[in-house]
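task queued by scheduler; priority normal; single chain, no ligands, no partner chains; default sampling; output format set to structure tokens
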Amino acid sequence: MISLFLLNESISDIEFGDFQSGIDDLILIDSDKDDIFFKNSNVYNIDNYLGLCENYSQENQFRIEFLEKLENHDSNPQSVDDLRKIFPKRANGFLGIDFSKICIEENLCVANNNDFSIFKEYYTSLVTFSNFKDLKQVCFPNIIFSQDSENQLIAYGESKYFKQCIEQFEILEKYLKSWGRGNFSYQDLNDKTAITISPESTTTMRKYRDDRVFSLPDGGTGVFELHIKLGNIRIHLLEDNIKKKIIIGYIGKHLKI
């Protein structure tokens, strides 16, 4: 889950035309439903905002509506440390237009959709077993982890297995972002990425199908036949062709074959 706070200093000392085009870039950010963008109400006193009200047009009305839809917050954070105190256990950054005169790490400043992608990639590089629960939705929005698989992954701690799994999930996530029409194709993923996903043999499924039945995050169970091989580690997964997501059901030692 992501929290971005509109930094008033990044939108106040710029030309009105730059402010308008900058707001347009912010409107186009492709955020997730769990992401929250905040503002301090002082934004309504900024000359550029008042300029939107004074120079009415349909375009300016859209810009006003965007700013009004940002969640109000009494705080006025000036650093990432401030944000972490306000929003613990979230991926925090700043929303704005011109950060050139502001001393905040560039990876944490979001002015457009490309910046937003870089921001999420940066947080992926920070994932550890201790913060995985907090960052999984930020870094892997198209991968759903069952409670069992999440616990299995975290149990690896700082070992090489945890890092290897995260590397696989990074590649998988990038591929899933481009999943459009049609059902999931593990063959297509194998052709286009460094991941190798395999189904089980007919013999294995006949003899050990029940060993590949794992819990689903929303209740019930599913057959997780497809798997990624990492040495003696297996990541068993199931596609959701409706939601266009991949569910991870098991991370652990090689199952019976």
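post-processing summary
- The radius of gyration is 22 Å.
- The CA atoms of residues 106 and 244 lie 32 Å apart.
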